[in-house]
Amino acid sequence: MGKGKLAKFADMASYPHVFEYPYSVVDEVPFDMKGRWHEDFFRNDHPIVLELGCGRGEYTVGLARLYPDKNFIGVDIKGARMWTGATEALREGLPNVAFLRTNIEIIDRFFAEGEVAEIWLTFSDPQMKKVTKRLTSTFFMTRYRRFLQDRGRIHLKTDSNFLFTYTEYMVEKNGLPLEFSTRDLYHSTWAEHPDTEEARILNIRTYYEQQWLDRGLDIKYMRFLLPQAGELAEPEVEIELDEYRSYNRSKRSGLSTAK
Fold first, then answer.
1. Which UniProt keywords apply (predicted)?
2. Helix (H) or strand (E) holding 74
3. What is the pLDDT of residues 9-25, one digit of tens each?
4. DSSP state of 245
5. Is 119 within 8 Å of 50 (Cβ atoms)?
6. pLDDT per residue over 136-193, tens digit each?
7. How would you write 190-230 as a 3-class SS string?
């Protein structure tokens, strides 16, 4: 029988690579390791990569296995899910993995200017009703700029046509350099060459991703850069809503489009 939530939280409290700060936007709780992740935890100068909304941490752990010369931090507020990846990383003795349990709205409290090289957004909630909750909105991109290196790389992997289309418009509206984009990841030309580095990275499949694939949904992926210069603006376009909210659940409102 699997562990319950309380047992998982007890485990996490003892894990040396898990940092728990489940505070709200209004809480002012200092984080002493801000700007010192390299010195105080990883003890190297390798690039730091964040997975925001990491869920069970499959991508965080999978990328850490592929790239021992990079440091990976999975971020999520749901500790019971995070326990899976955190436990796996601990059992494997992966030295380049950490997890941070906190609200992503306050992510800039935990990293100093230029401390992070890349961000992964894997199957984020599309937040079709509220722009400021979308992880590729100006609300969050402004926060990313506070700790992401100039022209730092952002990866978006999603089943949501709404979030992907919205992010396409964001990239276009703000002139962000787009490196790669596909609306059908597993049927793109690169998929014909499974031994390539990109194929190995993108074929890390999360628990929820496999659900979408089993349901017959296309997986979308894009990779773009976020320069420090320039004011960010929201695209003023109407986007058709997804027909679902999450696995096996229907759309939450009668609206057909949203900005």
1. Methyltransferase, S-adenosyl-L-methionine, Transferase, tRNA processing
2. strand 71-76
3. 999 999 999 999 988 76
4. E
5. yes
6. 999 999 999 999 999 999 999 999 999 999 999 999 999 999 999 999 888 776 666 6
7. HHHCCCCHHHHHHCCCCHHHHHHHHCCCCCEEEEEEECCCC
Any known ligand binding at 208?
yes
Catalytic positions, please? 125
Report whether pLDDT(70) > 90. yes
Number of domains in the chain: 1
Q: Which domain holds residue 45?
A: 5-258
Residues 6+ apart with CB under 8 A from 142: 232
- Exposure on the CB side of residue 161, measured as CA atoms within 13 A: 12
Q: What is the CATH number of the domain that holds 82?
A: 3.40.50.150
Residue 209 known to bind ligand: yes
Q: Is 129 annotated as a binding residue?
A: yes
> Comparing C-alpha atoms, which of 33, 98, 107 is closest to residue 63?
98
